[in-house]
Design brief:
This protein is 55% helix and 16% strand. It has two domains: 149 residues, no CATH class; 89 residues, 2-Layer Sandwich (Transcription Regulator spoIIAA), CATH 3.30.750. Strand 4, helix 8 and strand 5 form a beta-alpha-beta unit. The protein is globular. The protein contains ten helices and five strands.
């Protein structure tokens, strides 16, 4: 593979000790899954995870081995944070997306499997995984890197992740909402809340924007929660979009 076919992905300020703990947890999980694979069915979660990892190793070879070795040396040296640069093929974005979906399924499997010795991934390690995979997806798509520190701060700004829209969501106003959504994406927001509690009307353009936003964020490993009044929820039901967008009722005002 020529260098022209590779893309640089930079992980800025990767927390070395958290990565070390996440790596140890992942290794323990894979060892236990290897045992299960020898006796389990081919479509089981352990089998499919290991098959996915094997296929990635075959497809991408050793393009990132030297960078991971650099991180291991940083862990041995006791460094607290490390900047890394990976040179990977564009298909690594698809691989990161597929791995993210698979690991979410793996965590659910661990939570429901009392027979497992390995517990579900701790929340701080899940956040690290989401950041790493998200950086591969977004940077291969052409966006700049978001450091670990920026990612953590964004996750703590709950109100900054919420877009409250008022009035009608239609051809005349959808552009404004789209601009707000794009601004959050540029900042690397991973969890977006679109609050339409005060919206009285949504036309086909508004619905198209909501669907496009949901799908785009999902591709990037991010999520969108939609808050909508019953009249908007009924419209989504009639258009067959309830299952996709999963609208939630607006919060009830506190009683006095």
């Amino acid at each position: 593979m020529s260098s022209q076919e590779l893309v640089d992905v930079r992980l800025l300020g990767l927390p070395v000790d958290l990565w070390r703990r996440a790596s140890s947890h992942q290794e323990a999980l894979q060892r236990e899954f290897e045992i299960i694979r020898t006796t389990g069915v081919a479509e089981s979660v352990p089998h499919r995870l290991l098959e996915l990892i094997d296929s990635f190793r075959t497809q991408f070879g050793d393009t990132s081995d030297a960078t991971w070795d650099e991180l291991r040396l940083a862990a041995e040296a006791g460094e607290s944070a490390k900047d890394l640069t990976f040179r990977v093929p564009p298909a690594a974005a698809w691989a990161a997306q597929e791995l993210g979906k698979m690991m979410t399924e793996v965590d659910a499997y661990c939570q429901g499997g009392g027979h497992l010795l390995t517990l579900a991934t701790p929340s701080d390690q899940v956040a690290l995984r989401d950041w790493i995979l998200g950086e591969f997806i977004q940077q291969i798509d052409g966006r700049g890197p978001v450091s670990w520190e920026e990612f953590v701060l964004a996750g703590k700004r709950d109100e900054a992740d919420r877009i409250v829209f008022d009035g009608a969501l239609d051809l005349a106003t959808a552009g404004g909402l789209r601009d707000e959504i794009q601004e959050r994406r540029r900042r690397g927001i991973r969890k977006l809340v679109v609050d339409l509690s005060r919206v009285g009307f949504v036309d086909s353009i508004g619905i198209s924007l909501l669907v496009t936003t949901h799908n785009r964020l999902e591709e990037e490993g991010a999520t969108m929660r939609l808050i909508a009044p019953r009249r908007v929820q009924e419209l989504l039901r009639l258009t067959g979009l309830t299952e996709l967008l999963k609208p939630e009722d607006p919060p009830q005002p506190a009683s006095t």
